Structure formats: structure tokens, C-alpha cells
């Protein structure tokens, strides 16, 4: 018998796979057909917008407050670590009346302490004039609670007699202090003052003394407050003095 030929019939024609419709094309066709285009759902609703704004505001407030807290903490740490420089301390000299004067005589008044020498041609007289101007204003406002102190860094030539004569041109309550070379060097070391007078200087020689130019403000407890340089004006010193006196009073010292 002849072999049977098996016929295969396709039960269903397989359709080719169609790509996903493009939303933009669908919207375009819907518009052409007069149908309302399908809108995409928005993720930025009024509720989510409010949540976003509140969250952003909270983050800004948090980081700002944290920054301020860290800045204040750093200030407190620096103040506790460093504080004010350790300037001043025990010393013993003679005033222009040949009477002993020590660091204990600074207690009870606001003191302006300056280091110089009577043979100084210009800088020292200018600084003592500035101290006189400060004293005149300060005493007018607060009474006689201040004392200006002039410490010589020229022990070879500055005697008590020379100091008394020299200070007559400045504030009437200036206190002039002198001492031996070792005593002068010791007090300068306490106040971190540099001076160039050699220990074997001849008082008959004509020489100049190089030295630090600062006016040291000491509070009524005899503690260092601030050093004013040559560029500080009398007006600037008076402003700072008022601030320090107010702070001193707020702490209950006066």
C-alpha cells in the first residue's frame, strides 16, 4: 500500500508579538478621535509637597542649630583651655619717693602699667601722654579708682630722683618704679617685656633702649586684663575699659 501522507493543519495562526503602546502616541490618537487623553498620575500632590516643605524646613533648622551649638561649644572649650595670658606676678621695686612698691600695691585699683625709660626721645612721652588722657576721662566717669604705673627698663640711669622729676610733666598720680638690673629683668619677665639694656651699662653713656611698647591693664584683683599696643588710641582704650569694668562688676567683684 502506498504510504500515507500525513497532513499537518495549523490550528491557529501565531500572531507576531506587538510592542507596548507608546503613551504619547495613545494620547495623540485619543485627541484625534475626540477622546480625552489619559493623564499620567502625578507623584507631586499637595500633600507630598507639604511634607517635602516641612521636611526641608526641619533639616535646615536642625543643621543650623547644630552649627550654632558646635560654634558655642568650641568657644567655651577655647576659653576653658586658653583663657587669658599669664602676665604679671610678684615683684619688688622702689617708687619715685623711694618707697617699696610690690604687686600687692596693684590690688584695689585698675592699673595701667607701662615699661619705658626717662631718656626716651619720643615713644615713651607719647605713650605716657596717652595714659594721661585715658586717666582724665576714666576718673571723670568713675572717680579715683585708677593708677598709672611707669616702670623703668633703664636701671643704670633711672634713679628715684630722676623718675620723680620726669613724671612731673604727666598725670599727677603717676607712680614711677625703678630697681636694680636683676629686679628690672625679673619684673620684665613677669610681664613678658623685652628690653635691650645691658647689665653693665654705663650711666654716663648716651644710648637708647629698645623695649616692648604696651600698656598693660590690670584689674583691682591685680590680674591681667589686656595689653594695648602703640597703635591703640586713647579713645579705643577708654571704650574697652568701660566694657571690662562692666564685666567685672557683673561678676560681683565690685
TrEMBL record:
<dbReference type="GO" id="GO:0016531">
    <property type="term" value="F:copper chaperone activity"/>
</dbReference>
<keyword id="KW-0186">Copper</keyword>
<dbReference type="GO" id="GO:0033617">
    <property type="term" value="P:mitochondrial respiratory chain complex IV assembly"/>
</dbReference>
<feature type="binding site">
    <location>
        <position position="124"/>
    </location>
    <ligand>
        <name>Cu cation</name>
    </ligand>
</feature>
<keyword id="KW-0479">Metal-binding</keyword>
<feature type="region of interest" description="Disordered">
    <location>
        <begin position="1"/>
        <end position="26"/>
    </location>
</feature>
<feature type="binding site">
    <location>
        <position position="211"/>
    </location>
    <ligand>
        <name>Cu cation</name>
    </ligand>
</feature>
<dbReference type="InterPro" id="IPR003782">
    <property type="entry name" value="SCO1/SenC"/>
</dbReference>
<dbReference type="GO" id="GO:0005507">
    <property type="term" value="F:copper ion binding"/>
</dbReference>
<keyword id="KW-1133">Transmembrane helix</keyword>
<dbReference type="GO" id="GO:0006878">
    <property type="term" value="P:intracellular copper ion homeostasis"/>
</dbReference>
<dbReference type="InterPro" id="IPR036249">
    <property type="entry name" value="Thioredoxin-like_sf"/>
</dbReference>
<keyword id="KW-0472">Membrane</keyword>
<dbReference type="Pfam" id="PF02630">
    <property type="entry name" value="SCO1-SenC"/>
</dbReference>
<keyword id="KW-0999">Mitochondrion inner membrane</keyword>
<feature type="disulfide bond" description="Redox-active">
    <location>
        <begin position="120"/>
        <end position="124"/>
    </location>
</feature>
<feature type="binding site">
    <location>
        <position position="120"/>
    </location>
    <ligand>
        <name>Cu cation</name>
    </ligand>
</feature>
<keyword id="KW-0496">Mitochondrion</keyword>
<keyword id="KW-1015">Disulfide bond</keyword>
<protein>
    <submittedName>
        <fullName>SCO1 protein</fullName>
    </submittedName>
</protein>
<dbReference type="InterPro" id="IPR017276">
    <property type="entry name" value="Synth_of_cyt-c-oxidase_Sco1/2"/>
</dbReference>
<comment type="similarity">
    <text>Belongs to the SCO1/2 family.</text>
</comment>
<feature type="transmembrane region" description="Helical">
    <location>
        <begin position="43"/>
        <end position="63"/>
    </location>
</feature>
<keyword id="KW-0812">Transmembrane</keyword>
<dbReference type="GO" id="GO:0005743">
    <property type="term" value="C:mitochondrial inner membrane"/>
</dbReference>
Amino acid at each position: 500500500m502506498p504510504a500515507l501522507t500525513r497532513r499537518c493543519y495549523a490550528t491557529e495562526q501565531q500572531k507576531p508579538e506587538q510592542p507596548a503602546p507608546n503613551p504619547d502616541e495613545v494620547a495623540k490618537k485619543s485627541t484625534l478621535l475626540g477622546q480625552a487623553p489619559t493623564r499620567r498620575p502625578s507623584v507631586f500632590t499637595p500633600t507630598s509637597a507639604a511634607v517635602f516643605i516641612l521636611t526641608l524646613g526641619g533639616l535646615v533648622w536642625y543643621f543650623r542649630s547644630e552649627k550654632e551649638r558646635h560654634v558655642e561649644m568650641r568657644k567655651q572649650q577655647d576659653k576653658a583651655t586658653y583663657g587669658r595670658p599669664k602676665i604679671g606676678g610678684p615683684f619688688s621695686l622702689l617708687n619715685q619717693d623711694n618707697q617699696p612698691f610690690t604687686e600687692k600695691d596693684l590690688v584695689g585699683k585698675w592699673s595701667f602699667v607701662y615699661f619705658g625709660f626717662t631718656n626716651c626721645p619720643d615713644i615713651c612721652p607719647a605713650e605716657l601722654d596717652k595714659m594721661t588722657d585715658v586717666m582724665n576721662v576714666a576718673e571723670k566717669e568713675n572717680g579715683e579708682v585708677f593708677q598709672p604705673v611707669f616702670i623703668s627698663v633703664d636701671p643704670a640711669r633711672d634713679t628715684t630722683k630722676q623718675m620723680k622729676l620726669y613724671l612731673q610733666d604727666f598725670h599727677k598720680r603717676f607712680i614711677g618704679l625703678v630697681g636694680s638690673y636683676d629686679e628690672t629683668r625679673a619684673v620684665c619677665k613677669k610681664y613678658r617685656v623685652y628690653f635691650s639694656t645691658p647689665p653693665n651699662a654705663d650711666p654716663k653713656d648716651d644710648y637708647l633702649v629698645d623695649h616692648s611698647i604696651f600698656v598693660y591693664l590690670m584689674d583691682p584683683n591685680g590680674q591681667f586684663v589686656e595689653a594695648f599696643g602703640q597703635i591703640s588710641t586713647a579713645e579705643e582704650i577708654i571704650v574697652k575699659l568701660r566694657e571690662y569694668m562692666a564685666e567685672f562688676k557683673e561678676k560681683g567683684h565690685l
